[in-house]
Amino acid sequence: QVQLVESGGGLVQPGGSLRLSCAASGRTFSSYAMGWFRQALGKDREFVAAINWSGDNTYYADSVKGRFTISRDNAKNTVYLQMNSLKLEDTAVYYCAAGANAATMTRGLRVDYWGQGTQVTVSS
Length: 124
Description:
Number of helices: 1
Distance between the termini: 40 Å
Largest sheet: 7 strands, mixed
Shape: globular
Strand content: over 45%
Structural class: mainly beta
């Protein structure tokens, strides 16, 4: 079993930045692909970013490409999402996820574990 706990959410102004963290425990963190999803009020959950086990392959939704960066520190069992140039439409609950393959995670497939989520609100 893998337990995932997100942190770092909060209120930020448009154009600002936030860094989300996801701490993993229970199994060998480095063996999993990791990703971030988000769900805005009244909308379906959508893929945001993913990273493979070694950190050398990353994937992003078109809506966040160039603004968000996913990274991982396997020594700390932690994955990060650096969010820059935030927009009002980025407001959502952000969920950390773990799975077998980063590429398939972009389609919402092969997701084995989910965190509880952390709220990100972009407002002036």
